[in-house]
Amino acid sequence: MMVIRGMENNKLDKDWINLILQAKKLGLTPEEVRIFLSSAGKLQKSKNVTIS
């Protein structure tokens, strides 16, 4: 079983795992993913927009 930063893989949300794997396949860096998630969260808070 693969361990990610001390967590068992089966405790992670499968949708998040799939999202990260897709980003990796696209060649995105972890930093690019962090920037995107951070900016999407700020947009949602400031404009009260639902991101789906």
Describe the structure in your own words:
It is a single chain. 58% of the residues lie in helices and 8% in strands. It has helices at 14-25, 30-47; strands at 3-4, 7-8. Strands 1-2 form a two-stranded antiparallel ribbon. The protein is globular, with a radius of gyration of 13 Å. The protein is mainly α and 52 residues long. The mean pLDDT is 76. A hairpin with a 2-residue loop joins strand 1 (3-4) and strand 2 (7-8).
Features:
52 residues, mainly alpha, two-stranded antiparallel ribbon, 2 helices, globular
Quick description:
By secondary structure, the protein is mainly alpha-helical.
Helix and strand topology:
Blueprint (H helix, E strand, L loop, with lengths): L2 E2 L2 E2 L5 H12 L4 H18 L5
Antiparallel strand pairs: 1-2
Please tally the helical runs, counting DSSP H or I stretches of 4 or more residues: 2
Main beta-sheet annotation: 2 strands, antiparallel
Rounded to the nearest angstrom, the distance between the terminal CA atoms is: 31 Å
Instruction: Tell how many strands the DSSP assignment holds.
Output: 2
Give the overall pLDDT as a whole number: 76
Looking at how many chains there are and whether they match, the oligomeric state comes to single chain
Low-confidence stretches: none
Question: What percent of residues are in strands?
Answer: 5-15%
User: Structural class of the secondary structure composition?
Assistant: mainly alpha
Q: Biggest sheet, strands in spatial order?
A: 1-2
N to C succession of SSEs: EEHH
Supply Rg: 13 Å
Helix content: 55-70%
Apparent shape: globular
